[in-house]
Design goal:
It is a single chain. By secondary structure, the protein is of the alpha/beta class. It has one domain: TIM Barrel (Alpha-Beta Barrel), CATH 3.20.20. Helix content is 42%, strand content 16%. The protein has an eight-stranded parallel barrel, surrounded by five helices. Strand 3, helix 3 and strand 4 form a beta-alpha-beta unit. Helix 5 crosses helix 7 and helix 7 packs across helix 9.
């Protein structure tokens, strides 16, 4: 049975004082919550601080990106072994903002996924279509390509350690949210692709998260869908109270 996962992506927000204040408020607020995993992905510079703040709790810390080489002359990059050495568990890979602004492609996403798995990190692999692609009726073909190329070359054992996040680009930070029905349709399609690539058992156990303007007032409906296993939350994860409500979704 798939365990629900709620992950917060802080993007490029918060000062050190903000991080400390959030950690102090949030850890106690979700203490005792069971039946779901909670992950927060802050900017790189706050990873160690947040990992220490949540030490001894069930809250995990993840990174927002990872480079595919273990080490070398790659100024500004952070490798999987570096993240692992900090006690980091999860890493977001292929977020649409990385694709749009920083040149990530399905090929580089695949290299990052393989690097993460090599260091026993759990990649949260983001896929999603633009508004133009959706309006042209290309959603499923875009998702198909992103999933197949992003997971290219993985063994069944490796595939069992991957999480997929469906984030329609047109819903990220726009206030527009895919309806629960749209999310379910795409999530079911993704599960079918994974089954085709790695078999029914892997597909049935792969968590598929929804991301794109997830808020306290829509999380319950989204989580009620059979193939929605959690959420990758942007803006609503920045405030302890709103993220607490999302983590405490009903269902």
């Amino acid at each position: 049975m798939r365990r629900a996962l709620i992950a917060g992506n802080w993007k490029m927000y918060k000062t050190l004082a903000d991080v400390d204040a959030f950690a102090a408020a949030f850890a106690g607020a979700v203490e005792g919550v069971t039946g779901r995993a909670v992950v927060i992905c802050p900017p790189f510079i706050y990873l160690e601080r947040l990992a220490q703040a949540f030490k001894g709790t069930a809250i995990k810390v993840g990174a927002q990106n990872v480079y595919w080489e273990d080490q070398g002359a790659f100024t500004g990059e952070v490798s999987a072994p570096m993240l692992k050495s900090l006690g980091i568990t999860f890493v977001i890979v292929g977020h649409s903002e990385r694709r749009q602004y920083f040149g990530d492609t399905d090929t580089t996403v695949n290299k990052r996924v393989l690097a993460a798995l090599k260091s026993a990190l759990i990649p949260i692999v983001c896929v999603g279509e633009t508004l133009e692609q959706r309006e042209a009726g290309h959603t499923m073909s875009v998702i198909d390509t992103q999933v197949r190329l992003g997971l290219k070359g993985l063994s069944q054992e490796q595939a069992a350690g991957v999480i997929i996040a469906y984030e329609p680009v047109w819903a990220i930070g726009t206030g527009r949210t895919a309806t629960p029905e749209i999310a379910q349709e795409v999530h079911a399609h993704i599960r079918g692709i994974i089954a085709d690539l790695f078999g029914e058992s892997i597909a049935n156990n792969t968590p598929i998260l929804y991301g794109g303007s997830v808020k306290p007032d829509n999380i319950d409906e989204l989580m009620a869908k059979p193939d929605v296993d959690g959420a990758l939350v942007g803006g609503a994860s920045l405030e302890a109270a709103s993220f607490e409500r999302i983590v405490k979704f009903k269902g």
